[in-house]
Amino acid sequence: MFSRLRLKTPKMITQKLENLQITVPSAADDAPHIKNTCGRPNQAVTKPISLNADTGEVMVRKSTGKTKVRKGQSSDEYEHQRSHFFDVEKGPIWTPVGWMTKENPLQKLDSDPEFDISLKQARQKLISYCHILYYRKRYENCAQACENLITRLETLDGRKKVQKEIDELKQMLDHCQTHSV
Amino acid sequence: MSVACPQVRTLTKKNDPLHIIRTRKLTHNRPVTIAGPMVRYSKLPFRQVCRHYNVDIVYTPMILAREFVRNSHARMADFSSNENDSPLIVQVGVNNVTDLLRFAEMVAPYCDGIGINCGCPIKEQIREGIGSALIYNPDLLTSMISAVKSKYGDKLRLETKIRIHDDWDQTVELCNLLCDAGVDWITIHGRTRTTRSSVPVNLDAIKYITEKIKCRDVPVIANGDCFTMKDFQKILDYTGVDGVMAVRGLLDNPALFSGHDKCPWGALELFWHYAMEFGGLPHQLLLHHLHCMFESMQLEKNLHNELMNIKTTTELIDWFDRYFILKRADEDGFSEAIEIPYKNKSKV
After folding, report:
1. What is the sign of the dihedral through the CA atoms of B216, B218, B223 and B226?
2. Locate the DUS-like FMN-binding domain: which residues (chain B) (predicted)?
3. Residue-range domain boundaries for chain B
C-alpha cells in the first residue's frame, strides 16, 4: 500500500511542476554574453533542469515552449533492467557469422517458451532465417520454412498486424517453387 | 537485489581507441581512420563491411540512454554486436549524469569506448537538451564526462563529437573544459548547429580550434566532407588534426579509406553477405545502403530506378541475380570484384 503511495507522489509533483511557470533555460539566455550569433538566438536549444539527480528526472521544453518532465528511473527499476539485460538478455543481441543457421529457429519455436512469435523481434528473426536460405539458393529448405511460418502466422491473434509479413513469405514461397522447377 | 555486472572490456593495444589514435602514424604510416555514427545506418552489417577496408575505429548509431536503460525492446532494436565488432565506440544521446552512468555500466562490457553525441542537429533532440544542445551547455557536458571518468578512469574511453559555434573561441573554451573534465579525444564536425550539409565543412574553424588546444595533448579528429583519400589528406594537411572521421562518404563508398574513389562491387557483396548472416535489417534500410553504394558506382539510371521500386528483400535478391553476378561467400572471387559485373550488358 505504501509503495503505491510512493509511486503516486512523484506524479503529483510532476504535474504541479508542469503547471508552474518555470522556464527551462535555453542557449538564447546566454546571448547577451555571446557575440556573433548571426541573428539566431538558439531558442530551441534546451538546457534541461535536473529535478532529481538520483533518478535522472529532468525538465525539458516542448516545441510549444511549455515544460515537460521526463520521469526519472528509481534505483529499483534500474536494478531490474540491469539484471534483465545481463542475466536474461545476456547483453546485446550477439550475431556472429553462422549464428542464424547453426540451429533451425523454427524448431526453437516449439522447444523454447521464451521464443514468442507474437513479438516483432522473434518474427523478424524467423523471416531473416527464410531470407538467408533464399539468398543461399537453398530453395527447398526455404520453401519448407516459409510454409511452416505462414501456417503459424495465419493462426496468430491480431493477424492483420502481420499480414505484410505473411504476404512476403507467400511471395518467397512462390519464388522458391519457381526456382525449384 | 544487486546483480554482478560483467566486467568492462579490457583495453589492449589492439582495441584501445586512444592507443590506436596515438600510434597509427607509427604503425601504419598514416593517421587514424574512423567510421562515424549515422542514424539508422551504422548497424552491425555495415560496420563489418567498413572494417574490411582500412577503417580503424567504428561507431554505432546514436543510442538514447534514457530508452536503453529503461526498455528491453529499445535495447534489442538499437544494439547488436559480435566478437569481430571491435574497436567499437557506442555513441550515446543523453541529457543527464544518471542516465549516462547507467548506460555506461550496461554497454561497457561490449564496447571499447563511449562517445557523447554533442552534434546531432535534430530539433526534437535539441529540445530534450541532447545532441548539439550540449555544446551550449558546458556545465552539464563536463559534469557527465567527469562522472564517467571518475568512475572508470582509463578503463573506459570517452569521446565527445561536437559541432562548432558561430564564435570559434566559444568552441575553444568548450574544448578546454572538456579536456579539464578528462575527455580522451574530441571529434569536431566543422559545421554549426544550423549549417546545412550542402555547405562545405569549415576547415578553417577546425584548424583554428586544433591549434588553440594543441597544448592540451588531447587528440582531435576532424569530421565532415571526407569522400576520398584526397579529401582525407587535404583535411589532415590543412587542419593538423590527429585523424579523420568519415560518415556520409563511407555510406556511399565503405572502401574509401582503402583508396577506392568509388565503391567496389566487392563491398556490396560483403554487405549482402553480412546483412543476410546477421539478419534483422529492415528492407528499406537494406535498400538505402544499396542505393547509396550504387550511386557511388554510377549504376545505369534505368536500373537504379528499378531498384528503388523493389518492395521486398526476396524481389531484391532475384533482381540482383537477374542483372549481376552476385557472388556468395562460398564462391571463388567473392568480395574481390571492383567493377559492376553485369550479366548481360546489352540488356542494360
Report:
1. positive
2. 34-334
3. 17-258, 265-347
B37 is in an annotated binding site: yes
Q: Rounded to whole angstroms, how far apart are CA atoms B46 and A172?
A: 25
| Higher-pLDDT residue of B187, A110 | B187
Q: Is B263 a catalytic residue?
A: no
Residue pLDDT, tens place only, B216-237: 999 999 999 999 999 999 999 9
Residue A113: Cβ within 10 Å count: 7
User: Cα(A70)–Cα(B168) distance, rounded to whole angstroms?
Assistant: 33
Q: B245 is written with which cell numbers?
A: 572521421
Who among A47, A83, A125 is closest to B3 (CB)?
A: A83
Q: Inter-chain contact B312–A134, Cβ cutoff 8 Å?
A: no
B48 appears as a binding residue in the annotation: no
Using CA atoms, how far apart are residues B250 and B224, in angstroms rounded to an integer? 11
Of B2, B170, B274, the CB nearest to A34: B170
Handedness of CA B315, B320, B322, B323 (dihedral sign): positive
What are the φ and ψ backbone dihedral angles of A68, each rounded to 5 degrees? Answer: -145, 130
Q: Catalytic: which of B111, B118, B120, B179? A: B120
C-beta atoms surrounding B85 within 10 Å: 21
Q: Are the beta carbons of A70 and B98 closer than 8 angstroms?
A: no
CA distance B185 to B87: 15
Query: How far does the CA of residue A121 sit from the closest CA of chain B (Å)?
Result: 8
Domain B17-258, CATH among 3.20.20.70, 3.30.300.30, 3.90.1150.10, 3.90.220.20: 3.20.20.70
Alpha-carbon gap: B221 to the closest alpha carbon of chain A (Å): 25
| Chain mean pLDDT for chain B | 96
- For the segment A41-96, what is each residue's pLDDT rounded down to a tens digit? 555 687 999 999 999 999 998 877 788 899 999 999 999 999 999 999 999 999 99
Read off the pLDDT of residues B300-322 as tens digits, 9 standing for 90 and up: 999 999 999 999 999 999 999 99
Q: Which of B158, B163, B169, B136 is nearest to B222 (CA)?
A: B163
Which residues are CB-contacts of B226 (< 8 A; sequence separation ≥ 6)?
B232, B235, B244, B245, B246, B249, B256
**Inter-chain CB proximity A93 and B76 less than 8 Å:** yes
d(CA A125, CA A116): 11
Alpha carbon of A180: minimum distance to chain B alpha carbons (Å): 14
Q: In A, which residues are within 8 Å of B127 by CB distance?
A: 44, 46, 60-63
